[in-house]
Amino acid sequence: MSNFWVMKTYKEWAKVFVNNNEIGLDEDGVNNKYTSYNIQQLPSVLDNPRLLRRFDQFCKWAKIGDYVIVGVGQTTQFNMHIIGRIIGEYEFDNQHSQLRPYRHLRKIEIMKVFEEPIQVEKWGQVQRIELVDANDYIDTLAKSM
User: Fold this and answer.
1) How far is CA 115 from CA 8, 82, 101, 123, 131, in A?
2) Measured distance CA(29)–CA(27) in Å, rounded
3) How many Å from the N-terminal Cα to the C-terminal Cα in the chain?
4) How distant is the alpha carbon of residue 46 from its chain centre?
């Protein structure tokens, strides 16, 4: 059974997501493949429990076949920009570049790109990635089309 995720990112990163058919995140201190750290190492890698949870969600809990809506916007805004389906396992690429400013990534099948992102007010407080209810996800898509 597929899960449904919403993810907020930077506008610049969203463009890279579309160009590379992937989603990604990064954080100072997570300088190796996240899944290679053991449970005792994680507090020294990320001392913020919320950041640990986001990395767990992205790297461990999201699965191939899950759906994701990527939004852009300021802290209190979520503007739906990409609808996709995860098609790749979690990967770590140690290189930062203009082509990929993040090191932690998952390949996606892009299903829709909104050239003019659509504001979804109820997801305004979304952090980097969050699991949402299937009904909420589908209802949001239906209202946006």
Assistant:
1) 16, 9, 21, 19, 24
2) 6
3) 24
4) 18
| DSSP result, the chain | ---EEEEEE-HHHHHHHHHHTEEEE--TT--S-GGGS-TTTHHHH---HHHHHHHIIIIII--TT-EEEEEE-STT--EEEEEEEE-S--EE-----SS-S-SEEEEEEEEEEEEEEEE-GGGTT--SEEEE-HHHHHHHHHHH-
Q: CB-side exposure of 60: number of CA atoms within 13 Å?
A: 12
Render pLDDT for 48-95 as a digit per residue (tens, 0 to 9).
889 999 999 999 999 999 999 999 988 889 999 999 999 999 999 998
Say which amino acid occupies 72: V
Read off the amino acid at residue 93: D
